[in-house]
What we know:
Belongs to the PPR family. P subfamily. Pfam families: PPR_1, PPR_2. Helix content is about 70%, strand content about 0%. A two-stranded antiparallel sheet has the order 1-2. Helix 27 packs parallel to helix 29 and helix 35 packs antiparallel against helix 36.
Amino acid sequence: xxxxxxxxxxxxxxxxxxxxxxxxxxxxxxxxxxxxxxxxxxxxxxxxxxxxxxxxxxxxxxxxxxxxxxxxxxxxxxxxxxxxxxxxxxxxxxxxxxxxxxxxxxxxxxxxxxxxxxxxxxxxxxxxxxxxxxxxxxxxxxxxxxxxxxxxxxxxxxxxxxxxxxxxxxxxxxxxxxxxxxxxxxxxxxxxxxxxxxxxxxxxxxxxxxxxxxxxxxxxxxxxxxxxxxxxxxxxxxxxxxxxxxxxxxxxxxxxxxxxxxxxxxxxxxxxxxxxxxxxxxxxxxxxxxxxxxxxxxxxxxxxxxxxxxxxxxxxxxxxxxxxxxxxxxxxxxxxxxxxxxxxxxxxxxxxxxxxxxxxxxxxxxxxxxxxxxxxxxxxxxxxxxxxxxxxxxxxxxxxxxxxxxxxxxxxxxxxxxxxxxxxxxxxxxxxxxxxxxxxxxxxxxxxxxxxxxxxxxxxxxxxxxxxxxxxxxxxxxxxxxxxxxxxxxxxxxxxxxxxxxxxxxxxxxxxxxxxxxxxxxxxxxxxxxxxxxxxxxxxxxxxxxxxxxxxxxxxxxxxxxxxxxxxxxxxxxxxxxxxxxxxxxxxxxxxxxxxxxxxxxxxxxxxxxxxxxxxxxxxxxxxxxxxxxxxxxxxxxxxxxxxxxxxxxxxxxxxxxxxxxxxxxxxxxxxxxxxxxxxxxxxxxxxxxxxxxxxxxxxxxxxxxxxxxxxxxxxxxxxxxxxxxxxxxxxx
Length: 733
């Protein structure tokens, strides 16, 4: 971008060089011209006159011979031409030579390169002049390189660029480059100092370079600078306003960002563009405010602005994150209807969302759609797929994708490796998990606390709590801070191994490390106490949770409900359910299932029916376990009509019978002489891979024998013996 130069001839003497530079700046495609500034509210000063040290007669003769030889060089290598002069060249000779080569900038720069190879020290003045010459000859890349080298290696380099400017260039674009480089190097104070210094000479840094500066500032500095720089002549554009909107959104100041969007047009006279709206829509999506995001989305379209893939992806991402993947797919269809082509990021977001809710068939559909549009899955897409498959327990498919990713030359990152490690751990394949951990280290990737939490959890579930404890010490030794999930994994493993005392000590260690136990920590301990029969202690932990303002989850209440039921305290369980309803804590199917199961075990089907009706009245949908519990209970109570009714409901909803439910239902049907239905269920049970009880085989053996079907009787006997349900006489003795 060009620098805007003040047009004030009474205060700032514009040289012929400056006029020439101003007339030939159209070739700079990297930058767009800023609007000219008519006057500045400051006293302008001319740039300093350049007055280099004068050479001696001997020095002048050496420089004359050197530059003449350079100009007369034809095809000879430059090093060979310069070899007689280089041993005698001092830093000052370089600057004097530049004066003779001013109309041959390419030769001057070649001389500098050769000199630099031989001598380590290049004068500041020569470095600054080289930048001016490079820019004058249209070599913007070389100019950037000289400016960057000078800025990084010399403290007073800016002064030299200013000092040499008027004589060697008078092209203000050099300051734009210098300012931009200071910003890129993160030297924001130096950049601002340069900006302020240049305004005294009537040079205003271009708005695009100022935007680069603005985008590197913290939110408070952004707002302050946005007000200050227009007083110095900068005229902000749409990109400037968008930078401020983005900074406000990142700081969570969405209300201020929206107000700024309105000021953009009313005060700045600049119409918001697609980026303006997309940025603020993304801000509201990041905050989880879908209604406001949709409101801005509609406002954007009302103003005739067409949403782009980034706009749609923000909304799709929020919907997927909020477990509304189906609605996210509808947004994709709307996107396609509006002629906006989804990119890889959109598909990756959808794949991640559908993986999260376990809809693998939809995931495959999106992958095929993505490929049909010529979009190749990238590393992020593969990582989303691998995470999803590992979460669903499809470790073999995840392995296949991981290998495919490597074959395609896509590099897995920490997230990909951690997903695979977690998948192996959940499948009990600890050897593979640690092999992948070692592979991460070999590839220069650092396992993070999530990786080690997965390994700790896997070791605990594998029963190797001691190794998990050692791993925690190793994590601390690596300087990684343990998080709540890591401690929870260890506490869970200790509880499962029956070491409640150590689990409680670990919770104390967790608090000593400055981490507060959460609902999962307490729920894990409550579950362990319930299973050990210590309901009183479990109830005390619930009270402690509430005292510490930790909100119990529905899983917490389900753990306590199950504890009451296992201990035979069914009335206490019913009272807990009533208390939950009174406190507006909505139970789920698992809450009701505990009560249904244990009242069914006592054959108290009247209470079972009462609880089930209450469940349906509150619109809590029965799950597969609910139907199996009801069928089993009615079979034990010999209510086969009700059992068959719930079996029909289960089948209609696409659920499956468990092995014990099959056995109970078959036995009940046989007792009611409904042998055809019983035999059909028996065959269905075998097809499902379940093993029937000895009692069921006894019933079918007796039935076949009484029917005179001796061949089928022997077949049932052989099958029962083969499945070790009937022992031989030798075994029985």
